[in-house]
Specification:
The complex is a heterodimer of chains A (453) and B (106).
Chain A (H helix, E strand, L loop, with lengths): L2 E5 L11 H6 L5 E4 L6 H11 L8 H15 L4 E3 L6 H14 L6 E6 L7 H6 L21 E6 L4 H8 L4 E3 L5 H13 L6 H14 L28 E5 L5 E5 L9 H8 L9 E2 L4 E3 L4 E4 L5 E4 L2 E3 L4 E21 L3 H15 L5 E9 L17 E10 L2 H12 L10 E2 L1 H4 L4 E12 L6 E6 L1
Parallel strand pairs in A: 1-2, 2-3, 3-6, 4-6
Antiparallel strand pairs in A: 1-7, 4-19, 5-14, 7-8, 8-12, 9-10, 10-13, 11-12, 14-16, 14-17, 14-18, 15-16
Helix pairs in contact in A: 3-4, 6-7, 7-8
Chain B lengths: L9 E2 L2 E4 L2 E8 L2 H10 L2 H8 L7 E6 L4 E6 L20 H6 L8
Antiparallel strand pairs in B: 1-3, 2-3, 3-5, 4-5
The chains are: A alpha+beta (453), B alpha+beta (106).
Chain lengths: 453, 106
């Protein structure tokens, strides 16, 4: 009765082929691929603006070409939110690839309904203010209205519907990360939508799985001396073996490098968590403070005791807004009198940029204070100082002018200064700001459409 | 003898959501947990992180896994791509906190 869930993606660009040894080795019953972050949606919007048939993560193509044939042959469903801003186009791509591979009778589900950008005016008329969760400012009052994306976090329900409809691969957009995994559990065990403790246990399971490498020894301070760095590119990705009561064993793909232990589970448990008594998801409010972690053998940790309460009344919406451009330049300065030359550089740039509408300028000294902002005293007379200058403006042309003017001082500069050639040739990068808000559930109706290949 | 730092008692990981960074501090032993629970207040964390965290710091305790979770507001220079910092997501912030000198806090 135990269901085994594999996790083979934690961000856009993760190595999704880590699903293959799970599937071919017979270690999983279902595999999830979590592809989206707050920022990913803005990246995908750029793709969709350039081509209306895009807007999904490129990983979907890799999943369809390299994972789907092996999974379909074994009737192992694949679930991803990598459809991003265009799950329908991603599903069509999967259909084409499946046809070429001769996967007859395959059922491909697309889940939509999370994209609120075309509905913002309609929803505002219906009384939704989309007030900023941090500042309280209503959306309409914002001076800058250059919103690029607006996606509501959907829960597990459409995943359950698609699996019950016989889907072999499910392509969704902004489904909340742990709800991909929760959907597989609910479809398998038929948990009730108000069985808060089991739903919370499922969320904990999804939360521990959703960052792949981070629970098997990646990004781990606890294991900093134990992990062999040569294993990092080959880490076996995590698998959970979940029981009907929601307790589960967290482990990893057998016969692969990596470590699953109490420490790696604790590190991942609190990753991107705020109040551990109230971890908000679309389906349940989970409490992490009742959990029990116990060793359960080699690379196996038993997680039990999850409890939860009712789901929040409203759903979270993340909007990404275009807020201008940013550009960086890296200058190198050395002995003698390196700090004096840093002063000279700063004055030189202030003078060169006089009159330009530059909004923000940030200086940091790489290798000295760029990460920890003055946590330790700077050396008095260093042999070298690498200065990173970052500056922003509403338009890209201002930044290009600023770079030209700085470069025009190439020979009229502090003694012995150089500019990193890499940074001189770079283009201004768009600055995207996040605006988080809430929306009433009554307006949100996820759609599941299944096509047969 | 080298100075003891928080890293000698605990490990941890930083995560980002918008302009909020959460930093977990996970004790290496039950004794270490009692020590950090008693002494590692939110005020101390905010004072130690200085200019990195411009807003409020809230501490949550997890006795069940012997860990503290510090939720730091206005900690990522606007967050994500707004930030002018080189580590815009604050991946290194757990290290910043674990750098805290420990024995001087008696």
């Amino acid at each position: 009765m135990t269901i085994r869930i594999g996790s083979a993606q934690g961000f856009y660009g993760d190595d999704v082929t880590k699903a293959l040894p799970m599937i071919e080795g017979g270690h999983v019953d279902v595999v999830c691929f979590e592809a989206l972050s707050e920022l990913t949606m803005a990246i995908l919007q750029k793709d969709r603006l350039a081509n209306s048939a895009r807007g999904y993560t490129w990983d979907v193509r890799v999943i369809a070409e390299r994972i789907l044939p092996a999974a379909f042959a074994r009737k192992i469903p694949l679930i991803t939110n990598g459809g991003g801003l265009n799950p329908t186009a991603a599903a069509e791509l999967v259909r084409e690839i499946a046809a070429k591979k001769g996967l007859h009778g395959i059922r491909i589900a697309a889940i939509t309904g999370d994209d609120l950008l075309p509905r913002l005016d309609e929803l505002k008329r219906a009384g939704e203010t989309f007030s900023n969760l941090d500042t309280g400012e209503p959306l309409d009052k914002a001076a800058n209205q250059a919103f690029l994306t607006a996606n509501v976090y959907l829960g597990a329900a459409p995943i359950v519907e698609a699996l019950r409809g016989g889907a072999d691969i499910i392509i969704a957009g902004r489904i909340a990360d742990p709800c991909l995994y929760l959907g597989a559990l609910i479809a398998h065990y038929d948990w009730a939508w108000d069985d808060w403790d089991r739903l919370a246990a499922g969320i904990v399971c999804g939360h521990l799985l959703e960052c792949t490498g981070q629970v098997v020894g990646g990004n781990s301070l606890a294991l900093i001396d134990e992990i062999d760095a040569r294993d990092l590119p080959r880490l076996g990705y995590p698998i959970a073996e979940v029981e009907p009561d929601g307790s589960f064993i967290l482990t990893k793909t057998p016969n692969t490098p990596g470590v699953v232990c109490i420490e790696t589970v604790k590190e991942q448990l609190l990753y991107e968590v705020h109040d551990p008594r109230r971890y908000l998801t679309p389906d349940v409010t989970a409490n992490f403070t009742t959990l029990r972690l116990e060793p359960a053998g080699d690379n196996r940790v038993c997680v039990s005791g999850g409890t939860g309460g009712p789901r929040p009344d409203k759903l979270k919406v993340n909007l990404n807004r275009f807020e201008g451009y940013k550009r960086e330049l890296i200058f190198t300065l050395g002995y003698p009198k390196a700090w004096h030359k840093v002063d000279q550089l700063q004055r030189m740039l202030e003078e060169a940029w006089m009159g330009l509408p530059i909004e923000r300028v940030g200086y940091s000294f790489l290798g000295m204070d760029s990460l920890f902002d003055g946590l330790a005293a700077l050396p008095e007379d260093p042999l070298e100082v690498i200065v990173r200058v970052v500056f922003t403006a509403a338009d890209a042309e201002t930044l290009k002018t600023a770079v030209r003017r700085a470069m025009a001082n190439g020979l009229a500069c502090p003694a012995g200064m150089s500019v990193s050639g890499q940074t001189v040739g770079a283009e201004p990068n768009p600055v995207v700001g996040l605006w988080s808000a809430l929306v009433s559930r009554q307006h949100i109706q996820p759609q599941v459409s299944i096509v047969e290949g | 003898m080298t100075m003891r730092r928080l890293f000698d008692l605990a490990y941890g990981r930083a995560g980002d959501k918008g302009d909020i960074s959460n930093i977990s501090v996970i004790a290496r032993s039950p004794e270490a947990y009692q020590e950090i629970k008693a002494k590692l207040t939110a005020e101390r964390v905010k004072a130690h992180l200085g200019g990195l965290v411009r807003g409020e710091v809230i501490r949550y305790d997890l006795d069940n896994i012997e860990a503290l979770n510090f939720v730091c507001h206005d900690a990522l220079d606007g967050g994500g791509t707004r930030s002018l910092r080189i580590d815009s997501l604050g991946k290194s912030l757990a290290g910043a906190l674990l750098y805290m000198p420990w024995d001087s806090q008696e």
